[in-house]
Write a structure and sequence with these properties.
Layout: E1 2-15, E2 18-34, E3 38-42, H1 49-56, E4 64-69, E5 72-73, H2 78-84, E6 85-88, H3 100-110, H4 117-123, H5 139-150, E7 157-161, H6 169-184, E8 188-192, H7 196-202, E9 205-210, E10 213-218, H8 220-227, H9 240-248
Parallel strand pairs: 3-8, 3-9, 6-7, 7-8
Antiparallel strand pairs: 1-2, 1-4, 4-5, 9-10
Helix pairs in contact: 3-4, 5-6
The structure holds adenosine-5'-diphosphate.
Length: 254
């Protein structure tokens, strides 16, 4: 069953070189995202990915069309939507003097929720950093902490905007594992990424955006089948071991 329904969603901005004219940064897109899916939005810079997420998150006004999350109209009831979504932004600023534990407790209070901050830190594998300040975390730890913050209200849908940009391979893998764990527990996750391996590994379905429009949407496998270029006429096959065996007729140990 779809948990996010987007119909003809549009956003206009002033043209950078002529402010009296506008252009559609998001040009009437329609998407249907299933409950329990990890759904990826890909596209070059400026394609409209962040603007789309911002409209769904209630952080940006909608200029046309509509979007619902779990049946709630995003434009009409933004506060109700905020209660059921978690948002991890590309960059986060925190109060410098507070520890991770204190920050999570504070965020819980803002949502009027009694939360167990230790439990949340355990979820993102940061238990040992409970007393640390965000400034002292590594890039990967910072990203995982920002996800913990987004989980404070036990969201049904989690939005991640380029969650692994700038992370080293190990930190990236840790974050992928975390995304899969959360999704395994039933959370719908919508993410944007520039990392094709990430999209292929994590996402059950992918929308590719360009110039404010969705140019393709499908499972990674179907997208590859439909759109990847055919392999060259005579592809390289085998490896040097095969060459060795073919030329000598036996392996090294024989
Ligand atoms: P993406 O996330 O795919 O890189 P964005 O949604 O950030 O794309 O941007 C889509 C287009 O809208 C770009 O051309 C960008 O310059 C423009 N844009 C984004 N935010 C604003 C804004 N606040 N004011 C004017 N133009 C904007």
């Amino acid at each position: 069953m779809p948990i996010i329904e987007i119909k003809d969603l549009a956003k206009k901005y002033p043209l950078p070189d002529n402010k009296s004219e506008t252009f559609f940064a998001v040009n009437g897109i329609s998407l249907s995202i299933e409950a329990g899916e990890i759904y990826g939005i890909l596209g070059p810079n400026g394609a409209g990915k962040t603007t789309t997420l911002e409209m769904l998150e209630g952080l940006n006004d909608i200029d046309g069309g509509s979007a619902t999350i779990d049946g709630i109209d995003v434009a009409k009831e933004p506060f109700k939507v905020k209660q059921i979504i978690g948002v991890q932004l590309q960059a986060n600023e925190y109060f410098d003097n507070l520890s991770l534990l204190e920050l999570l407790t504070l965020f819980g209070a803002l949502y009027d929720r009694i939360i167990d901050p230790n439990d949340l830190l355990a979820k993102v594998h940061l238990q040992e950093k409970a007393q640390a300040k965000p400034a002292n975390l590594s890039g990967g730890q910072k990203q995982r902490f920002s996800i913990a913050c987004a989980l404070v209200n036990e969201p049904k849908v989690l939005f991640l905007d380029e969650p692994t940009t700038g992370l080293d391979p190990q930190a990236k893998r840790n974050l992928w594992d975390l995304v899969l764990e959360l999704n395994g527990a039933g959370m719908t996750i919508v993410l944007t990424t520039h990392n094709m391996e990430e999209a292929e590994t994590l996402c059950q379905r992918i929308a590719i955006m360009d110039h404010g429009e969705v140019v393709a949407e499908d499972t990674p496998q179907q997208l590859i089948l439909k759109h990847a270029a055919e392999p060259p006429e005579a592809p390289l096959h085998g490896n040097i071991e095969d060459v060795f065996l073919a030329l000598t007729g036996h392996g090294l140990r024989e």
